[in-house]
Design goal:
The complex is a heterodimer of chains A (86) and B (391). Chain A is α+β, with helices and mostly antiparallel strands and 86 residues long. Chain A has one domain. Chain A has three helices and three strands; from the N terminus they run H-E-E-H-E-H. The radius of gyration of chain A is 16 Å and the shape is flat. With 391 residues, chain B is of the alpha/beta class. In chain B, strands 12-11-10-9-8-7-6-13-14 form a nine-stranded mixed β-sheet. A three-stranded antiparallel β-sheet of chain B has the order 1-2-5. In chain B, strands 3-4 form a two-stranded antiparallel sheet. Chain B is globular and about 55 Å long. The mean pLDDT of chain B is 94. The chains are: A alpha+beta (86), B alpha/beta (391). At the A-B interface, helix 1, strand 1, strand 2, helix 2 and strand 3 of A face strand 1, strand 3, strand 5, helix 1 and strand 6 of B.
């Protein structure tokens, strides 16, 4: 996978939906929670469902260099679209 | 929820911990474009073909080069006569990290708690939308110092084992100080984890170390591979790195440790450099999709991760040499040639990385190790698959 391809598909490849749990509490290396690798498919799906549900209750703040072109929706405007969020 | 658009969609950092089947957890989520649109958002220019690459989501910032511990394998060669990075310089770096949209800032050093203003630095990071965390040896930690840490999302204490195991990694036994620090932080209501460096001498007793950390009140253990950087970049490294058998046994060992210890109150993390050891575990080696889904990162140096050293220069990771980019220009990350070169390895890797099922996640393993052992920016020579390929 080239860097150009990676920019289109995400840093970890073609999988578009990623959940990283926990804080990156370490001064030296990027750290990844691995409990999730061993919990099985059912619990794994439940983690994704929990994240999707939590996203519906959070207001959106855009950060980074590309934030100027996009305004976050008002909470009242996006009830329908949030149903489609992962 | 803090959202940063990427060419492929967006990263989103949830601002509240969520209830998951594994307990309450913070989360960073990768969303594809359709999911971003479903939230009523549009990436705009960030989704254009020629949009520049975005910055890391995690930055490691050394706030001092001073440390009196004298660990034999200190990867930064921190010393008692080191110096604190000037506050103004750090805040300029924080400004650049904010412009770049970095999510997490991990303070390191040297010993960060030697700074009287560490709590103020955490507040400054939070003002800029970043989650501050820190790692400390715990040596010399007092209740007054602990009070200053309340704005940090998590404090990790370096804890490589009980007694002789701690000494085997660091050259002296300060495990009692580390255990005392874990207890003090826990009593103060601060989320505390442990950093555990895994070495040849301590590998077999990893379960006892983690069980002890959990009993002391740590909520998380971060396992770290011993790396040849700083004072550890010596022949001594060859006697402390994991043996070939230990590296091959890492996946099954991790699975067993997770079954024994992980629950709603305790989780385990591994660092980027341990991912190549999954190649010897048939199940994990065939699980690249699962690793991607749960954001298990291999070498992200210069990509999702970068570091700012105590001399103010940006580096691909905390163990790598510096670039010419300074921290206060961190948001120019995309144009730096050295960072680009570190990211580029995975595009055209040498065998056996080229045909490895874990390639897109592992990204060739730890280049700090390959640069030290093989003198090349190439496949991780301690990866079981690389060892087998070369034998």
């Amino acid at each position: 996978m080239s860097e150009r391809d990676e920019e289109k598909t995400g840093p970890l490849g073609a999988e578009p939906v990623i959940v990283r749990l926990g804080h990156g509490a370490n001064c030296s290396s990027i750290g990844s929670v691995v409990d999730t690798l061993f919990v099985g498919a059912v619990l794994g799906s439940a983690i994704f469902a929990a994240v999707a549900a939590a996203m519906k209750n959070e207001t959106v703040t855009i950060v980074g260099k590309n934030k100027a072109k996009s305004d976050p929706p008002k909470p009242a405007d996006d009830a329908k679209t949030k149903e489609d969020a992962p | 929820m803090i959202v940063r658009f990427e060419k492929w969609g967006a990263w989103a950092k949830l601002e509240k911990e969520i209830d998951t089947p594994l307990g309450k957890r913070a989360a960073i989520v990768g969303l594809d474009r359709a999911s971003v649109r479903a939230l009523g958002l549009d990436g705009g220019d960030a989704w254009n073909e020629d949009a520049p690459r975005t910055a890391p989501i995690e930055a490691h910032v050394a706030v001092t080069s001073q440390c009196g511990a004298g660990c034999e394998g200190c990867y930064l060669d921190a010393r008692p006569d080191g110096a604190h990075v000037p506050r103004e310089e750090l805040e300029r770096t924080f400004d650049a990290l904010e412009r770049a949209g970095v999510f997490t800032i991990a303070f390191g050093g040297g010993e960060p708690t030697l700074r009287d203003d560490l709590g103020d630095l955490a507040i400054e990071a939070k003002k800029r939308g970043m989650t501050p965390v820190v790692t400390t040896s715990g040596i010399g930690l007092t209740e007054k110092k602990v009070e200053r840490l309340s704005d940090l999302a998590q404090v990790n204490v370096s804890y490589d084992g009980i007694g002789a195991d701690y000494e085997a990694v660091r050259g002296f036994d300060a495990s009692a100080a580390a255990e005392r620090a874990i207890g003090m932080l826990r009593s103060a209501g601060i989320r505390v984890g442990v950093n555990v460096v895994v070495s040849r001498q301590t590998f077999d007793r990893l379960g006892a170390t983690l069980a002890r950390a959990k009993a002391l009140g740590a909520c998380e253990a971060q396992l770290l591979r011993y790396k040849p950087a700083g004072r550890a970049a010596s022949l001594d490294y060859l006697s402390k790195r994991l043996s070939a058998d230990q590296a091959s046994a890492f996946g099954p060992r991790l699975r067993a440790l997770a079954a024994d210890l992980c629950d709603a109150d305790f989780s385990m993390r591994i660092d980027c450099a341990l991912v190549p050891f999954f190649s010897a575990d048939p199940d994990l080696a065939a699980s690249a999709e699962l690793l991607r889904k749960f954001g298990v990162f291999g070498c992200e140096a210069g990509g999702t991760l970068a570091a700012v050293r105590s001399d103010g220069r940006v580096a691909p990771c905390s163990f790598a040499g510096p670039t010419n980019l300074r921290g206060d220009r961190f948001d120019d990350h995309a144009g730096d040639e050295t960072l680009a070169a570190w990211r580029a390895y995975v595009d055209t890797p040498a065998e056996p990385c080229a045909s490895c099922a874990l390639r897109s996640v592992c990204k060739g393993g730890c280049k700090v190790v390959s640069r030290f052992v093989d003198r090349t920016h190439g496949p991780d020579p301690e990866c079981p698959r690389v060892r087998a390929h070369r034998s």
